[in-house]
Amino acid sequence: MSGRLLKLLGCAVLLVAAGACSRQKEEPKQGSQSATGASTAPPKAAAPAKVRLALNWVPEPEFGGFYAARESGAFSRHGLEAEILGGGAGAPVPQMVATGKVEFGISGADELLVARARGLDVIPLFAVYQTSPHAIMAHASRGAKNIADVLSSGTVALEPGLSYVAFLKKKYSFDKVKVVPYDGGVARFLSDKDFAQQCFITAEPIAAKRQGATPTVFLVAEEGFNPYLAVVITRRQYWEEQPERVKSFVAAVREGWRTYLDNAGPTNAVMGKLNTTMDAETFAEGAETQKPLIETEETRARGLGTMNRQRWEQLAQQLVELDLIEKAPAADEFLLPEFTGSRD
Hints:
By secondary structure, this protein is of the alpha/beta class. Helix content is 44%, strand content 16%. It is globular.
């Protein structure tokens, strides 16, 4: 064999050996063994953060976006595992949030301001209803054109202690109408044509129509009292400790409400199993009825759930005038620029 050929064969052997050595020095692959023989497992994804959301009523269309956020995976996509706790009459949601029993809750804007006046450090993050769904309903046969007409005669069922009831009493004095306690149903409304009552436009009017009545519904907001409703709240301490988690929760809720507004059916089916007192048709009609109260020109420009300082300040002043709180809190004490804009 010639010297030239021997030299070429030698080089080839050296290259093969070098390649083998380089492969031996490669980093061990995930799930394999390291050079010392220790196994290296692939990195685990961070476990979702568990949070609780306390509702102030039973599952109904007013909470559809929260259930949609859970069912559609929005919470999961934002690194959260959300437990939704149903509520009922008198559910102490602000207290539950302020004491840390839950991370998030649902409250009315007026209720939040009263809670703060009583020393509870709760703050708003997201307002579902831009127009309050609280209303007064009367029989269409009475021919009432507004709430003033309804309160000029007959009987009206109202729940004492509600801020909008205090507002209506101050505006109209109730001296021409008999006021009786609200019992939560529509039975008396169905049997008495001169009977009117407070209502939530996604509930009692629909129930009355389903049973043959023809109610006319007047929003209290049209009278000049329009607090945000179905407001997501948390405590300031939690915000300061977990700001990114709070932002993630709000982002997931916004996605959930977008999903519910676009297609309420699947979520209604889930809520229907939790609230068997409301049938599928009532769920569907309630979801449709509330749409214009949730999605407005402002939310289209700034996003679902948007809030602004001016409305909060106006509401606080109204509560002072109604003697429901002694002093209007400074907006900076409870409003976060991240969720209300800088100073709009």
